[in-house]
Amino acid sequence: MYLFIGLGNPGKKYSKNRHNIGFMVVDAISKEKCFPIFSKKNNSYVSFKNINGEKLILLKPDTFMNNSGLSALNLKSFYNIDNENIYVFHDEIDLDPSKIKIKKGGGHNGHNGLKSIDSYIGKDYHRIKIGVGRPKILIKEKKDELISKWVLSDFQKIDEEKWLKKYYKQLVKTLKIWKKKTLKIFC
Fold first, then answer.
1. pLDDT score of 138 more than 60
2. pTM higher than the cut 0.90
3. Mean pLDDT across the chain
4. Residue 111 annotated among the catalytic residues of the structure
5. Which domain, by its residues, includes 121?
6. How far apart are CA 114 and CA 60, in angstroms?
7. Tell me, what CATH number does 152's domain have?
8. CA-to-CA distance for 88 and 72, rounded, in angstroms?
9. Given the residues 19, 90, 111, 126, the one annotated as active site
10. Do 121 and 127 contact (CB within 8 A), yes or no?
11. Nearest by Cα to 102 from 134, 118, 125, 76
């Protein structure tokens, strides 16, 4: 059994924010693999499907980014899912837009969603970091405020939405290659 968690904030207001790219990716996987419609369960939106003999749960926390770990813990505990089978998709400002970095474990790098998940389930899960870049101008005294505004702003239609559409299929291909031996659901 696998659990894919997309990080983001619930509600239409946030749906196109850079911070919601985790939700966007989980939605794209849902569409690509013809998952049932998400249903509300335990402070989350979830969808379940068996793929190639493996059960895959898609999760979008309904607790806002800063408390995403509660949703992760609820499903992990209920289904007794090992952290080895948990994959968290999230935005990463230290990667250029459209770049992907996959890592197991590590720190949260100031990301409040990861910080919450770390505190609820530990750090030894897989992180799929999705580049959204940094704001171009950073004033040292206002760095945190500018970063917050950046990740909570929408992707720009002209510059960024073009690569987003192509990006989801590339991400699925990357996951196939990366975990071909153990992550059989995409093979």
1. no
2. no
3. 81
4. no
5. 2-186
6. 14
7. 3.40.50.1470
8. 10
9. 19
10. no
11. 125
